[in-house]
Design a protein that fits this description.
By secondary structure, this protein is an alpha+beta fold. A five-stranded antiparallel beta sheet has the order 1-5-3-4-2.
Length: about 240
Amino acid sequence: MESLGNQFNILLTQYQETYQEFLNAINSNNNTLTTLSNSAFVGKSNIDTIQNSNQNNCLSSCTSNSSCSGATFDNNSNTCTLSSGNGNIITSTNQTAIVKQALYYSYQLKQLNNKLIDLNNSMMQNANNNMNNYSQTQESNNQKSEILNNNYNTLEQEREEIEKMVREYETLNSAYENGNISVTSNYYLYIGYLLIAILLIFLLLKTNVSSGQTGGGHMKVSPVLLLFLALVILFNASFKN
């Protein structure tokens, strides 16, 4: 029982440190890639497969490709598979996953969380099997059992929080990318409207000059109409922007 308790405390310390690293990676938006042995990254889609590669070249290839969100290096075939989109880490022998810091720490948290739950269950089972051998009072035994149950519930809640934070992190990344596309599109639309408005104003001025030179007898386009169209386009461009 004492040995299990020591293992639990060591893993709990690792869990807390890894959890802090996970928060730091999210808050700093750290996109640095790192490696994870005996694992593979499964993204939304594969974008390239590089033959005769090595682990360092695979990491560099993903870093230099803006569409790459992670990669998998196969140690047997020396191939590097680049992937895009959100993905997950899976266990895979003789392969190395190349992933972002936030995903790496979230995977480590899940592994530590599972080990803590297994240890806690072993401690609970050990306590139940040896309950008659304890010299403590029934009240003390109940308190220990309650503590173990509380640990279990807390760890289950932590697992849900981790998965929730990972989903929120992925959603924020997607929203940021979509926002950039929308801003760029509105910018070019605004420039187009502005050029059309300037052209109409130029025609208006040219028409007025021509009208003044000829005494107004040969004006083909109404200045009022051109001015109205220019104002409408400028208002529409400002509203969309």
